[in-house]
Amino acid sequence: MLLSPDEINKTLSSYGWDYKNKTISKTYKFETYMDGIDFVQKIAELAEKHNHHPDINIGWCKVDLLITSHNMGGVSTKCINLATGIDLIIK
pTM above the 0.90 mark? Predict the structure, then answer.
């Protein structure tokens, strides 16, 4: 089920996620490059478990994530569940 922009912002904005162009995004920063790589490995395992995969851009000591439901054309409850699961990894 696709969510409205209001529902998305109400759920995720306090966690640092941004909503724009039918996508939610967030940047995570790390002390070292390898910390970011370890984080990406954990995201990959979670994404496989949920069968929902984010777009991941890895930079020097940062990881940018973009999540959308390509087949549905926007942000779904599956996207929100993945985003909140990713936030739990970092804690």
Answer: yes
